[in-house]
């Protein structure tokens, strides 16, 4: 029998390593946010307080998700997905234009970004599809058509906002889940060739001018340092200035002299790296590495296929956010609007990442439940 509460046995298996790693990242994020916003006056100078409120709210929501057996979500998978797609459509009706994009739905002083929550909703829908599909042998591209459509609909809506970074996360999460379904090598090669052939079309007819400029600057960073390349250049300068042990808390020059834009949202890592140096940066990267590897462990120990895909999907969200954000601030990837999980400021982002942690906790705590072992993906 599936229980809807946290049974004593499940409570006994509370995943402390997962909780401690996520909590440490969140605490370091608030400490860093206080330093990053110390150069501002007014509301922005108090963003760290808002971040604490969002962590509390996200923690409460996460607690609710942990209390409800994750297997109940399987029955609601497509309904949750449909709600997410509907909220993305509402963005084009109610969202206000902000710097050329429409991403947030506002209710008075409260606003949220549906595309962030859609990542979790997509993982739940993909987990339901693979749970219902009894196939255990290698899959072809045709077998993955439905999951691809489930991914493509929200990805295209998000790309239309426009938000290339978040749309890319949806696609990458799908690809990571698909990679673990034992796709046949012939299908993998066909997919790679198709993507390579479509690349010129995507460049000429899908990407906007400012998105192309970011790629161009990434390839030739010296060409436009004062405009499009400003963020990436000063990000690398800040990380380099940190040296081995950093300049000290609230003593990073790139932040304190306001050379580093968006240091509270997309570029908090350079602030941290300049203040705490290589040693602090390695600590933060190790925490993310542990969180991602622990997600794989949780997925491998899940007692059903739905839980296994939830573990892989939530781990993929955390991994790709951390990888892309760290990559763009270090100069090994183009600059895109992707936050650092539990570290960057943002109510929707923080809440979404805590939902991922909560779902991982849910699967981990119930891995000892008496249910049939999962088939291989």
Automatic annotation (TrEMBL):
It comes from the Bacteria. It is found in: Membrane. Keywords: Cell membrane, Cell shape, Cell wall biogenesis/degradation, Glycosyltransferase, Membrane, Peptidoglycan synthesis, Transferase, Transmembrane, Transmembrane helix. GO terms for cellular component: cell division site; plasma membrane. The chain crosses the membrane at residues 16-40, 52-70, 76-95, 188-208, 276-296, 308-336, 342-361. Its main location: membrane. The keyword Transmembrane applies. This is Cell wall polymerase. The keyword Transferase applies. It comes from Polyangium fumosum. PROSITE patterns: FTSW_RODA_SPOVE. InterPro entries: Cell_cycle_FtsW-rel_CS, FtsW/RodA, RodA/MrdB. It holds the Pfam family FTSW_RODA_SPOVE. GO terms for molecular function: glycosyltransferase activity; lipid-linked peptidoglycan transporter activity. One of its GO terms (biological process) is regulation of cell shape. The gene is rodA. It is a multi-pass membrane protein.
């Amino acid at each position: 029998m599936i229980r809807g509460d946290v049974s004593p046995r499940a409570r006994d298996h509370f995943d402390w390593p997962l909780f401690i790693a996520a909590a440490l990242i969140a605490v370091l994020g608030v400490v860093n946010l206080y330093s990053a916003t110390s150069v501002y006056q007014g509301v922005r100078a108090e963003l760290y307080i808002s971040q604490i409120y969002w962590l509390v709210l996200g923690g409460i929501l996460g607690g609710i998700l942990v209390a409800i057996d994750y297997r109940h979500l399987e029955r609601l998978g497509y309904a949750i997905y449909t709600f997410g797609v509907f909220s993305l459509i509402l963005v084009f009706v109610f969202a206000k234009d902000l710097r050329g994009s429409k991403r947030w739905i506002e209710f008075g002083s409260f606003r949220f970004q549906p595309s962030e929550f859609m990542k979790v909703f997509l993982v739940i829908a993909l987990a339901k599809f693979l749970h219902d599909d009894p196939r255990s042998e290698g899959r072809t591209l045709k077998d993955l058509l439905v999951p691809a459509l489930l991914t493509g609909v929200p990805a295209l809506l998000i790309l239309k906002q426009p938000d290339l970074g978040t749309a890319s996360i949806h696609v990458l999460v799908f690809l990571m889940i698909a990679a673990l379904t034992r796709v046949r090598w012939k299908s993998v090669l066909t997919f790679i060739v198709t993507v390579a052939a479509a690349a010129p079309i995507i460049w000429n007819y899908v990407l906007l001018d400012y998105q192309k400029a970011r790629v161009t600057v990434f390839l030739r960073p010296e060409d436009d340092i004062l405009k499009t390349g400003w963020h990436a250049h000063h990000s690398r300068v800040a990380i380099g200035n940190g040296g081995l042990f950093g300049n000290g808390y609230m003593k990073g020059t790139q932040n304190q002299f306001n050379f580093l834009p968006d240091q509270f949202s997309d570029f908090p890592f350079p602030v941290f790296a300049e203040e705490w140096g290589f040693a602090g940066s390695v600590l933060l990267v190790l925490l993310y590495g542990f969180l991602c590897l622990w997600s794989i462990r949780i997925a491998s120990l899940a007692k059903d296929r739905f839980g296994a895909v939830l573990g892989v999907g939530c781990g993929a969200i955390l991994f790709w956010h951390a990888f892309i954000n760290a990559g763009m601030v270090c100069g090994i990837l183009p600059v895109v609007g992707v936050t650092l999980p539990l570290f960057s400021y943002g109510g929707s982002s923080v809440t979404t990442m805590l939902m991922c942690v909560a779902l991982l906790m849910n699967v981990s705590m119930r891995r000892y439940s008496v249910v049939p072992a999962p088939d291989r993906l």
